[in-house]
Fold:
Amino acid sequence: MANAHSRGKVKAILLNDTMREAHHGCLVVSKNLRELASIFGIEITISYPVGTSHNLINAKFKETDCVIVNGEGTFSRRQPRRDQILNCMSIFLNENVPVYLINTSIGLDFTQEQIRVLQGLKTIWTRDQRSSDNLASLGVGSKVAADLTFYGDYLLASPAKLGDMTPSIEKRHPSKKIGVTDNFRDDISAILWELRRRIGAEYLPAGYFPKFDLTFFDQARKVKFLGKMGLNALARGLGSTRESAHRFSHVSPAPELYRAKISGLKYLISGRFHASCFAIGSGIPFIALEDQTYKMTSLIEQVGLQQWRLISPRMIDSVSLDSLFNMLEQGYSPGEINSIRRYISKAQYDIPSIFRQIKVDVDKILS
Structure:
């Protein structure tokens, strides 16, 4: 897919590293980011995890050649972690270190000072055209490339798999063919959990913790995660407590197995952005819950899928099972199949091009 650049290695800082996030999609993004950086001669010498404060930035960054910011899960809405990253970016820009923002969805709620920071970045790659349009309205240029989960061998190696799919479901045993995810919001996760219970589908929450080689930092995050789930669940009642406990007890042992579970389904009901990406990449028809950040809406638009695949949490809480099954039975239309083929094919060029351009740019700056 990618060919390494011929010059020497470029030293880079990775900001907003999602390697330690308890989500399968975040881990795949981090893995692909590191793999592609290495292919193109970019050495990540320092990485700062999600939520790093600008006060923790080490002076060693002055020895680096560039900064790569992984923008996933951060820039689509105003939140403390987004403001922290923008503060970090400002530090790097003040030292004339080129900064690249990649793999991001962008909202509109920025201060004037933050807009100036975005304008100072070397290049921004958003995951969708809606985000690029948002940036353009702020006077910031950008390019579009698919989410980094759309790069890799797990994707549809042959479009024939999509062509073989038929819009049918065994109504006598539909639960064996349907998967349901959780959501980043606890209240919506409770709705999805109840839906999973109603149809007896397989529950596929996004949480992941490795069983071995956990650092103290990882252990602390795990305890915090479990404690937060437990307190929130108790506040919502016994049914939600069951949902939260089940969410943790059903974590997959690895991202590869999570993707394999999705690819083995007939249909997916998704409340997670990356679970939807895995479904698209595996050729699995799905319906997805809308969210306030428009990430899911933008994904549907960018791939070229039909808008009926988006459903509100309120609707999914009240829809009849017959109506839900009728939606799922539509599978992918011929037009959607062609759109997915084009999208995946284009992603295999666009995603490596991010790192190719970074390497070429920094080489020119250093020469």
